[in-house]
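User: Quick sanity check before I run a bigger batch. Here is a single chain. Can you write out its predicted 3D structure?
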Amino acid sequence: MLIGNLIEYWKTNIKNEFNPYRDYLRIKGSADQTEAGESILITNIIGGFGHTFEGLYGRKAAIKGKNVYFLRCGNFLKKCDSLNAELSHRRLRCELCQTRQKEFISAFGGHDLTYEMYLGDTELKQIDKLTAEYINNGLDKPFYYESIHINKILYSALQRYYLLAQPDVKDNSITRQFLFTIFATIIVMDKICNEIHPRYVLTSHGTYSTWGAIVEYCKIKNIYVITHGQNYNHCGIEFTYDDSYLTGVINDTENKWEKHELSVTEKSKVIRFLDERLGKVNDDNVAFDYNKNNKKHFNRSQIAALLGIDPDRKLVGMFPNIPWDGQVTGGSTVFPGFKDWLKYTVDYFSKIEKAALIIRAHPAEVNIGTDSGKETTAKMLYELYEELPPNVILLDPKHEINSYTLGENVDFGITFSSTVTLELTYLGIPVILCGCPPFKDKNIAFDIASTEEYQDLLTKGINGELVVDDDRKERLFQYLHYFFFMRTMPQTLVEVKDASPVAFTIDSEKELDEDEVFEYLFHCIENKAEMDFSRYWK
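Assistant: Done. Predicted structure follows.
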């Protein structure tokens, strides 16, 4: 990872590849901050170019007369959400991060706020005291500060740091440093909000140590907060009010998507999106294309021959998430954790001789590194079993049989919270969904509410009794249109490739201010209005 950081620095500072913060200086106009306008707070700015959106929104708000404040770490925190257990050279990493933060402020202006401005000796002693109280309270017992549930924030921070679905919360330096980050963020937010009284707060994700603390603080203090993140529709940006964008749509019980009957054009956009994801349509800019280096296609007989199994046997595909990511974003109401789901499923199929369970490890696991000591599907399984049952086959992340070609050839699929659920349903393959992603309880997949119901659905799948009928497929199209088109904003100001900005599509702040999509977003956020970006997708 150290080498990766150096390569990134070389590319954008020596080789002169696109640096959005540096490049924005040629676009930047004369809109200055004014003390007269309403205040907005944009947080928590860390390294890398992933905060280009926040910078652009800040400039848009400044042009509109808002008093824009940016909160950034300022190289103050020892642990944050841009570090994990593999990023060992913290000093270099944080120095590069600090460089990016300064470039951000230079490019986008605004009132520059850092943690150090609000944390003196008194506050540092308070944080030490709170950390000691948390530890002494017992790591497995609920702990609240300012009515904010600290355990929830800490656990997600440790999941992201260790890259583990169910990390042990220990009294060690890592836990204490993340507690420092969480308490520091809450105290800093309290001081800033009492000082500037922001109309609203704009932040990323809404979970983990910094972003999670920010959102939970705002929720308790009834401060309007907006979270955002990129998704699979060409790295479009989705938004949620007063919740993490990862969970907000899960908590949405209004089922707005069901009320919208799709036009022919709208349905064709959804189908095009799905075909792009599946590689059925040529597109060299599919967002988060985990199979981009493996587009081989196999039929059922070829798969059976490659794996040495009888093609007449029932073939069942199991498609795990990256374990820690699936646990953070989906979880399960049936299984305590991701590993429990794996064990239960393998144990079940070990007794079903007429079926073969093919577990396709998530292709993005190669980015973790199977030799790094971090959690992978393979490592979990080998911790559970000395040897897998003969009818259970594990395909490693680089296997030539990719997730989609396996999926379209199985009798049914099993997922935790993976979006493969949606793509297989489109292909007419029934999927048993065991986690709690946004598309649970939509009558798209076959959802479970208990282990008994799971067993019943597995039996039906093996007997050929699970069917993707027209109603399920139509609901799939409706939901995908809502999720990826209505509530997702297309990137019109920045060209994005592989989830990173590669060029601006504007040459002046006049174009920024006149961009129809960004103007609509600004209007919605200002008025806390329901967003519908569907008309802006080509």
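Confidence is low (pLDDT under 50) at residues 9-16, 368-373.

User: Great, the batch can go ahead then.
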